[in-house]
């Protein structure tokens, strides 16, 4: 079945809008907002680590919940409810000055985020596959990357006129209409009965998710989840620890991260096609590990900028390449495999802020905690090396993530 370019564009727009709402505005906007919250005295760095950890616990729970929502009767209502709820939770944070309430809101934000981050790309990309356009699969993440760039501006441009929880207002003002747009567009996408059965109808899969080929991939992805989350949570805060007042990277570090992310998505999609997803994934983890270690190796502006560019320019590529590589190893597993990988990724990444908070509580510095991220990414690199080379990339295009 073919589809006009306009339908394809609207499908990608729906998925991208959903990811902007839940992942760029609902989740990662916390990163550029964090230095302002600390300066306002809304909470301290150790409390911020707990907020991030609760959000990541929610993300893990949401990814697991998505496993139960893959059936035809549940996919659309579950996805749309989670998307609209996420936008309303972002709005509610504008009025949450009580720390205990904020913890609960960040937990709920993570749950709805996890559901949407699994189901929205799965729906869009299965729809594209049925129309022989699976090669466009990576483009659904461009909205998230653009949203990171936008969240930096929404956090810093009105910084002088807002304070405390009101700093969430610009995020909420954009998240609510985008959620309505995304929900409307995603509700229009319908899969054939054959596709929805393969997407998960509650039947027991023919094989286990874990075998000699896929187990190294899962172990590598656990390292990736732990490795990338420290820079993606604390980079602007680390910049304030290392850089003098007035340095442009105090507000610009997150902007460079977002720009690198936006430009890298088509690059990694192309490199995976050209070199093979496994080889491209090895390169991605090597650069990402160097980026996480950069603030330790070159403290100051050089390390902060390298961390922003190298981590920002690789972490989404690692997600795309891992999802495609997984389907080359087990092409029959469909979105069930995607949900399992995302759940593992979410489980691993919640350890990062928690461990960083423990380290800071013991008198360590935030910069030193980045060594954990670099080590986890080297772990990912080593396990990726052990993944066997199997199915040509051509087969992967039939079963996108």
From TrEMBL:
<dbReference type="Pfam" id="PF06779">
    <property type="entry name" value="MFS_4"/>
</dbReference>
<keyword id="KW-0472">Membrane</keyword>
<feature type="transmembrane region" description="Helical">
    <location>
        <begin position="303"/>
        <end position="325"/>
    </location>
</feature>
<dbReference type="InterPro" id="IPR036259">
    <property type="entry name" value="MFS_trans_sf"/>
</dbReference>
<dbReference type="InterPro" id="IPR020846">
    <property type="entry name" value="MFS_dom"/>
</dbReference>
<feature type="transmembrane region" description="Helical">
    <location>
        <begin position="366"/>
        <end position="387"/>
    </location>
</feature>
<dbReference type="GO" id="GO:0022857">
    <property type="term" value="F:transmembrane transporter activity"/>
</dbReference>
<feature type="transmembrane region" description="Helical">
    <location>
        <begin position="167"/>
        <end position="187"/>
    </location>
</feature>
<keyword id="KW-1133">Transmembrane helix</keyword>
<feature type="transmembrane region" description="Helical">
    <location>
        <begin position="337"/>
        <end position="360"/>
    </location>
</feature>
<dbReference type="InterPro" id="IPR010645">
    <property type="entry name" value="MFS_4"/>
</dbReference>
<feature type="transmembrane region" description="Helical">
    <location>
        <begin position="136"/>
        <end position="155"/>
    </location>
</feature>
<feature type="transmembrane region" description="Helical">
    <location>
        <begin position="252"/>
        <end position="268"/>
    </location>
</feature>
<feature type="domain" description="Major facilitator superfamily (MFS) profile">
    <location>
        <begin position="7"/>
        <end position="392"/>
    </location>
</feature>
<dbReference type="GO" id="GO:0005886">
    <property type="term" value="C:plasma membrane"/>
</dbReference>
<feature type="transmembrane region" description="Helical">
    <location>
        <begin position="81"/>
        <end position="105"/>
    </location>
</feature>
<feature type="transmembrane region" description="Helical">
    <location>
        <begin position="111"/>
        <end position="129"/>
    </location>
</feature>
<protein>
    <recommendedName>
        <fullName>Major facilitator superfamily (MFS) profile domain-containing protein</fullName>
    </recommendedName>
</protein>
<feature type="transmembrane region" description="Helical">
    <location>
        <begin position="48"/>
        <end position="69"/>
    </location>
</feature>
<feature type="transmembrane region" description="Helical">
    <location>
        <begin position="280"/>
        <end position="297"/>
    </location>
</feature>
<keyword id="KW-0812">Transmembrane</keyword>
<feature type="transmembrane region" description="Helical">
    <location>
        <begin position="218"/>
        <end position="240"/>
    </location>
</feature>
């Amino acid at each position: 079945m073919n589809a006009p370019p306009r339908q394809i564009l609207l499908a990608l727009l729906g998925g991208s809008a959903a990811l902007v709402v839940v992942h760029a505005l609902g989740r990662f906007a916390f990163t550029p907002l964090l230095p302002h919250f600390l300066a306002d005295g809304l909470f301290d760095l150790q409390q911020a680590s707990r907020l991030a950890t609760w959000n990541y616990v929610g993300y893990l729970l949401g990814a697991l919940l998505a496993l139960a929502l893959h059936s035809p009767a549940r996919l659309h209502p579950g996805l749309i409810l989670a998307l609209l709820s996420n936008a309303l939770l972002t709005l509610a944070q504008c009025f949450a000055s009580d720390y205990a309430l904020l913890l609960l809101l960040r937990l709920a934000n993570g749950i709805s985020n996890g559901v949407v981050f699994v189901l929205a790309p799965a729906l869009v990309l299965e729809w594209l596959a049925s129309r022989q356009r699976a090669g466009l699969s990576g483009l659904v993440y461009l909205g998230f990357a653009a949203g990171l760039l936008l969240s930096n501006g929404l956090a810093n441009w009105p910084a002088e006129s807002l304070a405390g929880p009101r700093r969430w207002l610009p995020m909420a003002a954009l998240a609510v209409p985008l959620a309505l747009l995304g929900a409307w567009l995603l509700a229009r996408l319908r899969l054939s009965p054959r596709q929805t059965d393969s997407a998960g109808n509650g039947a027991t899969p023919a094989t286990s998710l874990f075998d000699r080929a896929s187990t190294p991939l899962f172990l590598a992805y656990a390292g990736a989840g732990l490795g990338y989350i420290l820079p993606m949570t604390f980079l602007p805060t680390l910049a304030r620890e290392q850089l003098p007042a007035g340095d442009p990277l105090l507000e610009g570090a997150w902007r460079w991260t977002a720009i690198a992310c936006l430009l890298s998505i088509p690059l990694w999609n192309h490199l995976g096609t050209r070199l093979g997803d496994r080889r491209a994934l090895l390169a991605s983890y090597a650069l990402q590990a160097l980026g996480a270690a950069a603030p330790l190796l070159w403290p100051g502006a050089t390390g902060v900028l390298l961390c922003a560019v190298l981590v920002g320019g690789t972490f989404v590529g690692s997600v795309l390449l891992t999802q495609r590589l997984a389907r080359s190893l087990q092409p029959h597993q469909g979105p069930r495999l995607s949900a399992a990988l995302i759940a593992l990724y979410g489980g691993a990444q919640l350890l990062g802020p928690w461990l960083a908070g423990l380290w800071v509580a013991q008198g360590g510095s935030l910069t030193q905690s980045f060594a954990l991220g670099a080590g986890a990414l080297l772990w990912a690199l080593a396990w990726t090396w052990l993944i066997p080379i199997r199915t040509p990339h051509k087969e992967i295009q039939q079963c996108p993530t």
